[in-house]
Specification:
The structure holds two protein chains of two kinds. Chain A is mostly helical. Chain A has eleven helices and no strands. Chain A folds into two domains: 176 residues, MetI-like fold, CATH 1.10.3720; 36 residues. The two termini of chain A are 42 Å apart. Chain B has three domains: 236 residues, P-loop containing nucleotide triphosphate hydrolases (Rossmann fold, 3-Layer(aba) Sandwich), CATH 3.40.50.300; 107 residues, Nucleic acid-binding proteins (OB fold (Dihydrolipoamide Acetyltransferase, E2P), Beta Barrel), CATH 2.40.50.140; 106 residues, OB fold (Dihydrolipoamide Acetyltransferase, E2P) (Beta Barrel), CATH 2.40.50.140. In chain B, helix 4 packs across helix 5. The radius of gyration of chain B is 27 Å and the shape is globular. Classes of the chains: A mainly alpha, B alpha+beta. Chains A and B meet through helix 7, helix 8 and helix 11 of A and helix 3 of B.
């Protein structure tokens, strides 16, 4: 009996968590304009999405492209910046290191609204014309700390002598960095990149405040505006389903890879 | 100057500090081509710092390091290596804990240096195979380095260094992480490798047994200074001071007095010895190796007598502690066992008595004058016997070893310190205590302290003599 309740509790939780996504996925296979009406099975919305032939919402494809571009650029930039910062922080000692790590964690705790407004004010103060550049800069600023956090533990596991060993064998400092240090840090950099990419992908508040008035829309700001205009563009349903599936696959791949590495390490011990 | 042509590395007056801590003090040393040199000393003696300077990871604060460098016309030349980065120096290092590249397999680890130098692919292949054979790892090319045992990783680390055909191979405690049996096997292999390759090995270790087994030359270091340079036999048989005698092998270190040339008195008896030139009645340290005391159950005809206190079997010999008739304790090794309680007679051959000048006979420390009864010593205020300060600003305080008082509780002393080094002198302990100010106080005591103990230090006012730096008492 106890077991039954435990099981039921788990299932209720899972249903509550995932049924909204399941509903969107199910209703992505029907043509009805309003969400919740079933007008028979159809893959027309998927077709529209892929051909770009979207009724009443041609901004959607543009917003998707913007989102991906911004996420990619800011994730790559944060990965580079974050890795360099992590190496720097790792070589600091004592109080200095603690201070910098604290500064690094501030942007992560800070509410997005405050980050957004403060960046908005900064850009206005500096006289930046707001648009792609300011959104990307803003995203880099809140993504970098996550990369730092995912690279630092890798550095801690490193044998402190391997960089010197590379120099000793004739590598210049740059070669030692590329051929020895970076390959060692790669898993940390990769998970930092994925984190940064997803953080940028679903950001609303910071984007909203820094995108300016040139009409730049990302997915989140597009959906926000779309919903206020009256009803969501039906093609959003297949799009969200696809995004969810892609994330699921990427997560699955990462997990099996990690599992394999862990198993290998286990054998080595 | 034929001897000088063989020199490959010349280190002159090198000093190095990290912050306030001076880790190397005026080190001068030269290393010959093809030599197996060991830098030996306890941890913190500066040996690894010296090695890292030779490799180029650290620069000396003072002094120069020069190396033989291949000149243009195949003409070897000496060159000051200051400012030359590690990757341009003609030497390779085997690091502590291996430092292999985990993302590369055995082959790629070893080929790393050759690939950087753009050596042709087939030559890399041949050279990697050759060194793998040399370190007995021929079938391991494709193995992941993390799947290898400690000893195997060590071999790969050695192969990775020697495949570059360096003139000098630096080894930083390469065997420290291996277990005893493996360590002994690797010692033999290293020695063979050194003979086969014919290159210079500079080896850092704190293991005196390892140093004695492997080296052509041993450099004994302590507290940032070179204590003695010599062959293993020299260092073992003729240590220059009590530190070396104690650090290398087992020894009895005793206070003695040179009666006259070739005659020394210690443990209440006079002995013939082979040392001269110390001056009559000068205080000396005497070193007797435990295996050099001739022990028998006949007390007649012996130089001195005693009673066996303990006896333990050590595999080949027995190790005994004997209380002598004068109340000293001697460690003795012999193939025969003498039961505890046995009256024994003992003698020592003149050859086996090693006499060393005492490094110091009392504490002499720089001090600052506060007033006529107080001085600043080790950064604290000490009371001392009244004296009249003169105009000269430089003073020093002298006080005997036996007059320094040590306390269990740090706050009972005027200042505090850490027991740094302990020497048993047969009937008392001679301690080196490092004060919080980084200076050293030498203490004779009957009490038992452990290395690393934190102690309070005080000195009775009447025991401190303050004098001007020119030696004149004020």
């Amino acid at each position: 009996m106890k077991k039954f309740f435990a099981q039921a509790y788990l299932w209720i939780l899972l249903i509550l968590l995932y049924s909204p996504i399941a509903f969107i996925a199910i209703y992505s296979f029907t043509e009805a304009k309003a969400f919740g009406n079933w007008t028979g099975f159809s893959t027309k919305l998927y077709g529209n999405l892929l051909t770009g032939n979207i009724t009443g919402g041609h901004g959607l494809i543009q917003a998707l492209e913007n989102t991906l571009l911004i996420a990619l650029v800011s994730a790559v930039a944060s990965m580079i910046l974050g890795t360099i910062s992590a190496i720097g922080i790792y070589h600091l000692r004592g109080r200095k290191r603690k201070a910098v790590q604290f500064l690094n964690s501030l942007p992560m705790i800070n509410p997005d609204v405050i980050t957004g407004v403060s960046l908005f004010l900064l850009f206005v103060f500096l006289g930046f014309s707001q648009g792609y550049l300011t959104v990307i800069l803003a995203h880099i600023s809140f993504c970098t700390p996550y990369v730092v956090l995912s690279v630092l533990p890798r550095l801690g596991q490193l044998n402190p002598n391997i960089y010197e060993a590379a120099l000793d064998l004739g590598a210049t400092p740059a070669q030692a960095l590329w051929k020895v240090l970076i390959p060692q840090l790669r898993p940390g950099m990769l998970s930092g990149f994925v984190l940064a990419f997803t953080m940028s992908l679903d950001d609303f508040a910071v984007t909203f405040f820094t995108r300016g008035t040139i009409g730049l829309e990302t997915l989140s700001t597009f959906i926000y505006a779309d919903a206020r205009r009256g009803g969501l563009t039906p093609e959003l349903r297949p799009l969200m389903t696809l995004i969810f599936l892609i994330i699921l696959v990427v997560l699955g791949l990462l997990n099996t890879r990690q599992g394999k590495n862990a198993a290998q390490n286990h054998i080595n011990l | 100057m034929s001897g000088h042509q063989n020199i490959i590395i010349d280190i002159e007056h090198v000093s190095k500090s990290f912050g306030d801590n001076q880790v190397l003090k005026d080190i001068s040393l030269y290393i010959r081509e093809g030599e197996f040199v060991t830098l030996l000393g306890p941890s913190g003696c500066g040996k690894t710092t010296l090695l890292r300077m030779i490799a180029g990871f650290l620069e000396p604060d003072e002094g120069t390091i020069s190396m033989k460098w291949d000149g243009k016309a195949g003409n070897p030349d000496f060159k000051d290596v200051a400012g030359i980065p590690p990757h341009q120096r003609p030497l390779n290092t085997v690091f502590q804990r291996y430092a292999l590249f985990p993302h590369l397999d055995v082959y790629d680890n070893i080929a790393f240096g050759l690939k950087l130098k753009k050596v042709p692919k087939d030559e890399i292949d041949a050279r990697v195979r050759k060194v793998l054979k040399l370190v007995s790892m021929s079938d391991y090319e494709d193995r992941d380095v993390e799947s290898l045992s400690g000893g195997q990783q060590q071999r790969v680390a050695i192969a990775r260094a020697i495949v570059n055909q360096p003139k000098v191979l630096l080894l930083d405690e390469p065997l420290a992480a291996l277990d005893l049996k493996m360590r002994q096997d690797m010692q033999i292999e290293l020695k063979e490798m050194h003979q086969k390759l014919g290159i210079t090995f500079i080896y850092v270790t704190h293991d005196q047994g390892e140093a004695l087994t492997l080296s052509d030359t041993i450099v004994v270091m302590n507290e940032g200074r070179i204590q003695q340079i010599g062959t293993p036999t020299d260092i073992y048989n003729e240590p220059v001071n009590s530190f070396v005698a104690d650090f290398i092998g087992e020894s009895n270190i005793l206070n003695g007095t040179m009666v006259r040339d070739r005659r020394v008195s210690f443990i209440g008896h006079e002995f013939d010895c082979v040392d001269e030139g110390f001056g009559e009645n000068s205080p000396v340290d005497v070193v007797i190796r435990p295996e050099d005391v001739i022990i028998s159950d006949k007390t007649e005809g012996a130089q001195f007598t005693g009673r066996v206190k303990s006896c333990a079997f050590k595999g080949v010999h027995y190790e005994m502690y004997v209380d002598t008739d004068s109340g000293n304790e001697l460690q003795i090794q012999d193939y025969d066992a003498f039961e505890p309680g046995t009256e024994v007679g003992m003698s020592i051959n003149p050859d086996d008595i090693q006499v060393m000048r005492k490094e110091r006979t009392e504490n002499v420390v720089d001090c600052e004058i506060i007033d006529s009864t107080h001085i600043e010593l080790f950064g604290e205020t000490f009371e001392c016997a009244p004296f009249t300060p003169g105009p000269d600003g430089h003073y020093r305080a002298r006080f005997p070893f036996s007059k320094v008082e040590l306390w269990d509780h740090e706050d009972e002393g005027v200042t505090t310190g850490e027991v740094w080094f302990i020497l048993y002198k047969g009937d008392h302990y001679h301690l080196t205590v490092r004060t919080d100010s980084g200076e050293y106080v030498y203490v004779d005591t009957d009490d038992i302290w452990d290395k690393g103990d934190l102690v309070g230090i005080s000195i009775q006012p009447g025991d401190i003599i303050v004098e001007s730096q020119d030696g004149q008492e004020k």
